[in-house]
Amino acid sequence: MNPVRIISLDDADARRASFAAQNQHLDYEIVNAVRGTTIDPQVLSNPNLFADNLEYTKGAFGCALSHLAAWFESIDTQQPVTVAEDDAIFRHDFHAQQQRLLGSLPDDWDIVVWGWNFDSILSLNAMPGISQTVMLFDQQTLRSKTDEFQRSTQAPVLLPLDKCFGTPAYTISPKGAARFVEECFPLKNYVVHFPVLNRSLPNNGIDIAMNRVYAVSNSYACFPPLAITKNEHEISSVQTNSAR
After folding, report:
1. pTM over cut 0.70
2. Which of 94, 172, 175, 205 is buried deepest, with most CB atoms within 10 A?
3. In the chain, where do the E strands start and end?
């Protein structure tokens, strides 16, 4: 596999240093994120990318374009690409487990999500047409157990994915990249229903758009996860209009 692509703003020195300190075992390279405040207005008005009046912050626009660039890289190279954000924390055995799990998949897989936001649900297609399968987590405890998480050796499995929040780390295939480009873009105004939460949430970020694709594609979640994020909203560069 190619090195993990870490999406990070070019001036995010503290985040990059923290990532490097926590992930010394990881084969990765930094990819400069698209800064939302500097996106050309012609790009934002491109109807092939964004609908009018889209409820995205500037940071969310930049995040969406950063992930889109990674998908095009997979399409152009015809190689899977592993994408992570600069607050991701990987298990020490990530590369070995990643290779094993990807090798176990059928050839037509689209995406494998290695981690998600632990302050909400992970919904699986474990029993399609029979029952929804939803997991809940304790994000506060997770934040205090990152060392234990990285040292854990429990063998993960890949489960059919329905919905989850966040994009801390995933691997996308060329076929999957083409599908997500086609079905996510142009990004439009709509709502997505989330089970157990019993809420329909507006498309205000690329992870919401991706949730419309998971259940109708060959998408998988790794459980237990091989990557986590502390998901610290107060330092997010996506949920504000002042960054990315």
Report:
1. yes
2. 172
3. 4-8, 28-32, 81-85, 88-90, 111-115, 122-127, 131-135, 157-164, 169-172, 191-194, 199-202, 219-223, 227-229
Interaxial angle between packed helices 174-184 and 58-77, expressed in degrees from 0 to 180 and rounded to the nearest 10: 140
Distance of alpha carbon 33 from alpha carbon 126, whole angstroms: 34
Report the residue count for the chain.
Answer: 244
Give the rounded distance of the alpha carbon of 192 from its chain centre: 17
Write the single-letter amino acid at 76. D
pLDDT (mean) for 236-240? 51
Q: Has residue 239 got a pLDDT over 70?
A: no
Q: What is the dihedral of CA 71, 207, 224, 138, to 10 degrees?
A: 160
Nearest to 117 by CA among 137, 146, 132, 90: 137
Cα 142 from Cα 75, distance rounded (Å): 35
Cα–Cα distance, 14 to 185 (Å, whole number)? 32
pLDDT of amino acid 242: 40
